[in-house]
Design goal:
It is a single chain. The protein is an all-beta fold. It has strands spanning 22-24, 27-29, 60-62, 80-82. It has a two-stranded antiparallel sheet with strand order 1-2. The N and C termini lie far apart (32 Å). The protein binds zinc ion (2 copies).
Length: 84
Amino acid sequence: MGEQREHQWERTDRGAVNDFAHEIANHNGPRCTVCGFFFCENCYPQGWQRTCPGPPPEGMAWDWVGDGAGHPPEDDELETYRVG
Ligand SMILES: [Zn+2]
Ligand SMILES: [Zn+2]
């Protein structure tokens, strides 16, 4: 019904969004505890505007990797992969 869902970001012990939940080399940013979305807040600040697709299907994970450095796939390109 067009509901805008917000990511539930990993938090630090002090309750702030953890900007280093995701870190690859000198790329870092937050990560969602629900869908696993992560992005580099330096290269991809628009990541803050993305909505949360919710949890992936059982036994699967959303494939957010994209180029690996912080440019995740667009919502209509988002796929899942099997985990475990
Ligand atoms: Zn999310
Ligand atoms: Zn970056």
